[in-house]
Amino acid sequence: MKTKKIGFIGAGNMATSLIRGLIDSGLAAKHIWITDINPEAQQTLAHNLQVNIATSNNDLVTQVDVVVLAVKPQVLHNVATEVAEQINAQNVLVVSIAAGITQTSLQNWLGDAVAIVRCMPNTPALVLTGATALHANANVTAEQRDLAENILRAVGISLWVESETELDAVTAVSGSGPAYYFLLMEAMEKAALALGLNSQQARLLILQTALGAAKIAMESNDTPEVLRQKVTSPGGTTQAALQSFENNGFTSMVLEALQAAHDRSISMSKELGAI
To answer: Which of the following CATH numbers is that of domain 6-164: 3.40.50.150, 3.30.420.140, 3.30.470.20, 3.40.50.720?
Structure first.
């Protein structure tokens, strides 16, 4: 990994986090190239992290072993077709973190022989606690799989899915997931204010409680169901709150919400792939 050269087409927040994570993991900044449509963003990132600026997207491809496509999905078609010939000539690995763009679309734009890994990172990757699912096409070698996995592990955990269609479920669970927790925090804060706490007290208590619950779950072998049961005393305050959740259809509401996100992920892929 430390000898590999990685290029990022797109220098936005996610690319910046990946680059920071890679450097922190031991990859030399001199082995990283970037391009971006925004010259100011490009210069700022290069100055702050001491990475290389390529003169063009095609120039970047000639310098690296891996090309990370970190542009907005709406412009990926133009970027992919621009570099397709050079990517085939250099035989590099392509890692796409563009949401909603399927491998079929990428292969149509880049070529059937290109090694492609499609990733679904989530926004906590911006603070190096991301959760990313990856799927490789048949052209990706075992070494390239390891390389792609190591790149995404620089910003959190990563796991492989066997079928690309599973990425729609990943999108519904972890891709959109942070917003679900933010919504719960928002609702709890409003309730806390109604119960008499001030906003500073409410927010601090809610954030620390969320952090603590996640830490317990990450470090325990118990399922969430068992953990819930362990902190719920019969006839106590927690049971009263949980019973209210269930009386109001909490579980079915969550199931319907994730199904809606899953279905929208599929429809967006069709829309974006047709660009």
So the answer is: 3.40.50.720
